[in-house]
Amino acid sequence: MDLVSTAGLLLAVIVVLAALVVRGAWVVTRKRAAQTVGQAEEASERLLRDARREADAYGKEAEFAAKEQAHTLLQDSERQSQERRDELASIERQLTRRTQELTEQDREAKRTEAVLGERQQALDERERALAAERRRCDELLREQQQALQRVSGLTADEAKDLVIKQIEQEARRDAANLVKRLEAEAREMAAEKAKQIITQAIQRSAPEHAIETTVSVVDLPSDDLKGRIIGREGRNIRALEQATGVELIVDDTPGAIILSSFDPFRREVAKQAIERLIADGRIHPARIEEVVEKVKVEQDELALKEGEAAAFELGLFDMHPEIHRLMGKLKFRTSYGQNVLGHSKEVAYLAGIMAREVGLDAHTTIRGAFVHDIGKAIDRDLQGTHLSLGIDFLRQHGESEAVIDAMAAHHMDIDWPSLESMLVQAADAISAARPGARRDILESYIKRLKQLESIADSFDGVSKAFALQAGREVRIMVESDKVGDEEAVWLSKDIAKRVENELQYPGQIKVTVIRETRAVDYAR
């Protein structure tokens, strides 16, 4: 029993102690919780105060931004309103002015209407008077007819037939006279109109004319360059003359040398080549040949650009590039001393003016006039007249038959196939007949030089032939593998004999045959 009571007492003590421990722990936990809640409340209050301060700051900033935006919107609105008011005021002024104009027009219309009313009233009165006069004339006519019937013994129908026949005869005679007079007046007016149109075309196209010469001058920076151009024993000047076909005249003229040739293309190539050689400083036969070939290629490109520029100037934008190239080559061709490209442009301009005046197809007329001499850029290379060569070339490169017809009769070799062709022929004649446009002596001289070169070119083995010294010398380059030294001697004699038989010339012509053998190898 004592053990049991002791154990129960011990258990009770343990329970009481446990309860006290639990209560102490709860009290401690509650104090800690109270402290945590207090700290949390203080933190939340602090955060709340901070948030309120930030909110107040953001609110003030937003309010300030809103006020600024409102101010800006107000200014924009006032400016737009002012612009609108100005626009409305301008419209109001225009409406006021228009109203005044309409009012003035209405008053003018009323005045016109009143005048027309008065005129209509006068016309009505005049018409009534004329009707009364017509009735009186009809009465008098019936009385006269009755009197004529009694006197002549003819009925009214018989007298009418007789009068009609007489009137018809008189009308036929008057009509014939009128037709003759009108035909004469029409011919006079047509001739006068044609003169007027041609005169206007000439006045509106007044280009300057400069007859092409056969010499060009190359300016030298120093007279010391003359010796370098001549070269040792004249090898440089000979190489230049052989490569270009142009005669170089190096005399006492200070600071210049003269290039002589009837072919403007050759002179230009020689001039450009010499200027480049002077600028480069290297002047020797190999360099001369290289530069001359390069200049020839560039001159061909220049011819294409010149043809394109001339066509563009006339409003011709769809021509074949080969047509442009050949037309550009005509810049280096002359006819009786007149530049052929300049002549072609002038003919096209004149023909276009006349075509517009008479109501014909101006585009076709200008196109045909522009290419009417294109065969002159081919006739040195092929057999045939420049007209036939030009027609064939234009057909091959897509030109229409209307354009070909317009240029086909400019020398009146055939009947005019169209009215446009008549204008092209007239424009060609006007351009050629301008004072100072052509010089016959120069053209005959150039033809003689061409014929001299063509005679030399016709012999077998000749590679190049150049007329020099104003036609007093022809220099011939032969192929060394075809012509030997002895054959070169006989070739010069044969050419000289043929020149004597076929050409007329003053003095004598020197025939020089040059045979050159070249051996070329490369060091690798």
- General shape: flat
User: Looking across the biggest beta sheet, what order are the strands in?
Assistant: 1-3-2
Number of strands: 8
| Overall mean pLDDT | 79
Order of helices and strands: HHEHHEEHHHEEHHHHHHEEHE
**Helical content, roughly?**
over 70%
| Low-confidence segments | 208-212
Write a structural description:
- With 524 residues, the chain is mainly α.
- Among the domains are: 21-147; 212-313, 2-Layer Sandwich (Ribosomal Protein S8, Chain: A, domain 1); 441-524, 2-Layer Sandwich (Alpha-Beta Plaits), CATH 3.30.70.
- It has 14 helices and 8 strands.
- The chain has helices spanning 2-152, 156-204, 224-230, 235-244, 264-280, 285-313, 321-329, 340-358, 362-370, 386-396, 401-408, 419-433, 440-457, 485-502, and strands at residues 215-219, 247-249, 256-260, 334-335, 338-339, 462-468, 473-478, 510-515.
- The chain has a 3-stranded antiparallel beta sheet with strand order 1-3-2, with helices on one face.
- A hairpin with a 2-residue loop joins strand 4 (334-335) and strand 5.
- The chain is flat, with a radius of gyration of 54 Å.
- The termini are far apart.
